[in-house]
Amino acid sequence: MFFPALIIIDTTWSVFVAVWLALAFNNKRTLYREPLYQRLSYGLAGVVAFLLLRHLSPINHPLFRSPANQIAGAALCILGIAFAVYARLHLGKNWSGIVTLKENHTLIRTGPYRLVRHPIYTGILLAIFGTFLALIPSLAALIVFAAIVIIFVLKLRREESLMRRQFPDEYPAYQRSAKALIPLIY
């Protein structure tokens, strides 16, 4: 049985990039932006993670490969991208790809933000996991995925520090009502 996982995943990520680019220029004015060295640290860590995936050849052999994991991986990728796009649309003009504070910044706690405080990250991580499951189900991919999770956790901690300063009464209550990335767990 042929399952076109690569085509589905490539198309899904292409939709993600197109939506992100289309929405990137319609945001509120930025009042605060994290320093360049912090922004570069995420990108550098991501590049290192993907270079690891490419060069960890002794542990980059598939653990298992089947149509079932390709179907499941493609489904997780689609679900993750759909959730991230939904969260991005719901966030509206407050969005930024970097840690920022916007003019008239509002704390969003509805839609996907009721489930988790960082649904865009949740969706992207789910899509990455699905991509790896479908295309590169290896120990190296798991190591790289763990590194990517760490990058996202570090970034969300910076965001949350900024949000606690901006919303000193509201944000701690929000933190108690919604998990950071995984509903009911973390």
Radius of gyration: 17 Å
Written as H for each helix and E for each strand, in order along the chain, the element string is HEHHEHHH
State the distance separating the first and last CA atoms: 38 Å
Helix count? 6
Largest sheet, if any? 2 strands, antiparallel
Low-confidence stretches: none
> What strand order characterises the main sheet?
1-2
The mean pLDDT is 88
How much helical structure, as a percent, in the residues?
55-70%
- How much of the sequence lies in strands comes to under 5%
State the secondary-structure class. mainly alpha
Number of strands: 2
Mass-distribution shape: globular
What do you see in this structure?
It is a single chain. The protein is mostly helical and 186 residues long. Helix 3 (67-91) packs antiparallel against helix 4 and helix 4 (119-135) runs antiparallel to helix 5 (139-166). The longest helix has 28 residues, at 139-166. The chain contains six helices and two strands; from the N terminus they run H-E-H-H-E-H-H-H. The model has no long low-confidence stretch (mean pLDDT 88). It is globular, with a radius of gyration of 17 Å. The protein has helices at residues 5-23, 36-55, 67-91, 119-135, 139-166, 170-177, and strands spanning 30-33, 100-102. Strands 1-2 form a two-stranded antiparallel sheet. The protein starts with a helix and ends in a 9-residue tail after the last helix.
